[in-house]
Backbone:
């Protein structure tokens, strides 16, 4: 079997979408792990070295492992740009912590 993800995705049109869906929509770690393994089995990709590496590192990137954590300043680029724009209206880089907190309360 080829270890090339592009080849694997070309042979299996829905695989990429299924992986993206399970990564974004798994509510628990167990649900994510079961779905990941089932999807790789479905597409005969259990031995793919790239997916093995992703599996080994999933606790660092898969959202199911962060559902109980709150990261208020993490967001997509477009959302962070709009957030930055909003903050620039209220806070200057020269402001004190007190001014920042006051702006935070205002926002």
Residues:
């Amino acid at each position: 079997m080829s270890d090339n993800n592009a080849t694997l995705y070309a042979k299996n049109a829905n695989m990429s979408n299924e992986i993206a869906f399970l990564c974004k929509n798994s509510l628990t770690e167990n649900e994510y792990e079961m779905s990941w393994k089932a999807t790789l089995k479905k597409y005969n990709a259990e031995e793919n070295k790239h997916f093995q590496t992703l599996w080994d590192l999933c606790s660092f990137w898969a959202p199911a492992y962060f559902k109980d954590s709150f990261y208020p300043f993490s967001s997509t680029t477009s959302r962070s740009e709009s957030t930055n724009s909003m903050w620039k209206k209220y806070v200057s880089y020269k402001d004190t912590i007190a001014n920042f907190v006051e702006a935070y309360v205002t926002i």
In short: The chain has a mean pLDDT of 81.
